[in-house]
C-alpha cells in the first residue's frame, strides 16, 4: 500500500541514459578523458570481425555503380526536386563539404570516414540540406551494400556529378572505410554557438594568420570562410586574406584555391529564396517524425527554387549544369554591386547584365533570373594575386580545367595517404608530391647481417631506439602521413627538428648510411632494424629472449619526392613517450600525450606499456632522468610500473611540471618525474593498466605487449604490404 501514490507514473528514469548527466567529466572537469583512445572500438561497429572493406570493395561492379550514379543525377524526385532537373550541384557540395573539413595541422577531418553522417557535421549550418543529398543516395547504397562505403559514395557522387556536367576528372580511388560513431577526437573550436563571431578563434581577426591552431574554418559550423564577408561584413580584400590562410591550412596553394573556387562555383547555385528564420531544426535537433531530415521549411514547401540553405540566392553562371568558363565570363565581364538576397544575406549582383547571360530559374525554365557572387568570389577579382591567376586561367581554359581536376582530386583524396592505399580502375598513374611518394625498397638482403653490422657499430641503446622511434612517431592515422617508411627523418625539415636531437641523429645516420651501402638494405629499414636490435638486447638483459618482428622493403625518399613545407606541421611539439616538450603550453602535458598516441593509432593499454618501457630503456629526450624509475636502465623491465605503484613512496611537486618521488621512511629522493609519468598512477583507468604491468606474474606479459606495440608503431605506415 505504501507505493500507491506512484500509481500511473512512468517507471522510466527520464533522461537518465540519454540526456546530459553528471558523468565523470561533469563532476571532475579536470580529469583526463581517455575516450579518444578507444572511441572506435568494436562496441560501435556492427560489422563482423572478419569484415574487411578494402577487400570487399574490390568485388564491386565499378561500372554499374557509376552508371546508376549518372542516372541519379537527372532523376529528379518530387520529395526534393533537382535544380534544373540535375542533382549535380547538390552532390558536388556534399562531396566537397565531406572532404573540405581536412586540415593540415593535425590531418584530422576530411572525407575518409563518412563522418558527415553524424553530429555535429550532419547538422552544421554550412551543411544545410546535405541531409537530402545523402538520402537521395540511399537507394544506391542499399543496392550495393557492403561493397561501397558511405565515405566512398559521398566522394564518388561528386566525381560523377562533375563528369555528367562535362568535366574530365583526374581520377578516383575507393578504399575509405566507414566509421560508426562520430570522430570525437576532432577539435572544431571552443565556441558554444553556431556561427559565433570569428573573433573568438583569432588572436586578431584582422590578422588571419592568428587563427587558432589546428583550426582552418573561420567560424564554428563553416567549412571554409563566411561567404558574406568577415563576420558577415562584406569586404572582398579582407575576405581574400582569410581565404588564403584557410585554404593553406587545408593544404592548398593560391592556384589551387582559385581553381577550386572557380570550379566549384561553375556549377549549381546557392539557396536563399525565403525566410531563413522559418526553417525547422537541424537534423540532430529534429523530432522523430522527420526521420533524420532537418531544416524543413513550412513556406512554399521549401523545395527547389524556394529552398533556403546559406541564405544567399542564385547561380554563379549562365549555364549552372555545364562545366565551362562561365564563372570567369560573368565575374570579369560585369561590374558587381552589393545587394541582399530574399533571405537577407549579403551578396553581389551584376550591373546591366544582358538577358542572355542570365541563368534560367531552377524550376521555371522559361524565366531568367540574375546570377550572384559572394564576397569570396569578389575576392578572386580584387586580390592582385588571385586576379592574376584568374587571368591566367581565362587565357588558357584547358589549363584551368586541368588545374581544377587536379585540385579536386587532391581535395577529395588528401586524407587517404600514399598511393599504395588507392583501389579501383580510375587510380591515376601519375605520382603526386602531396601523396608523399616512397620508392619500393630492397628486400634481397639478409636481416641478421644488417643487425650484426649495427651491433658492431658501437651505437648506444639510446641511439638505436630513439632514432627508430623518432622516425616512426610522425605517423598520423588521421591522414596516413608520416612514419618510418621513406626515412624522411634524414631530410629537411625533419633532420633539424629539435625533438629529433639533430646532433645525435646526424651521428647515427652517418653510421646507417654506410651499413645501407654495404648491405643493400634501405636506410629506412636499417633505422627500424636498429631500434628492434636495441629492444632485443634490452629484453635479453632482463632475462627475456625475444625476437622483434620485422618487415623488409621500406624505401628511401628523396628531397625531390618530399614537399618539405607540408611536413612542417608534422613536427612534434611534445612527445610524452620521450618525456619532452618543446616549451610550456596551455594544454597539459598528459593531454598532449593522448593526442600524440591517438594520431599514432595507439590504444590506452598500448600507450601505457610503450611509455613504461621507453622510460626504463633510458630514451628520454636529452638524457633526462624524469620518469626513469629503475636502477637497471637499459633493461626492458616493468620497473616503471613497480616503483610508480609502490606505496613505500610519496610524491612531491617541485615545480610546474616536476616532481620528486621520495622514500617515506628515509625522506630521500629516489626518482624525479613529470605529469606525464605520474598520470599513470593518478588516473584511475591508467592506474589499472599500470597495476596490471606491475604485477609479479606479468613481467613476461609486459615484454610481450611492449614488443607488439613497438612493432605496431614501426609498421603503421606499411601500406605497401598486405
Topology:
Layout: H1 24-27, H2 53-56, H3 62-73, H4 88-99, H5 130-144, H6 150-164, H7 236-249, H8 254-264, E1 269-270, E2 314-315, H9 326-333, E3 336-340, E4 346-350, H10 375-382, H11 384-395, H12 397-413, H13 447-456, H14 461-472, H15 502-519, H16 523-541, H17 564-567, E5 574-575, E6 580-581, H18 589-599, H19 604-617, H20 639-644, E7 649-655, E8 658-663, E9 669-673, H21 675-682, H22 684-694, H23 699-714
Instruction: Please state roughly what percent of the residues sit in beta strands, choosing from under 5%, 5-15%, 15-25%, 25-35%, 35-45% or over 45%.
Output: under 5%
Radius of gyration, in angstroms, nearest whole number: 28 Å
Overall average residue pLDDT: 95
Main structural class: mainly alpha
Q: Return residue spans where pLDDT drops below 50 for at least 5 consecutive residues.
A: 1-7, 13-21
- Categorize the overall geometry: elongated
Helix content class: 25-40%
Give the beta-strand count: 9
What profile does the largest beta sheet have?
3 strands, antiparallel
The end-to-end distance, rounded to whole angstroms, is: 68 Å
In the sheet with the most strands, the strands line up as: 7-8-9
Number of helices: 23
Write a concise synopsis of the structure shown.
The protein is mainly α and 722 residues long. The protein is built from 23 helices and 9 strands. Residues 1-7 and 13-21 have low confidence and may be disordered.
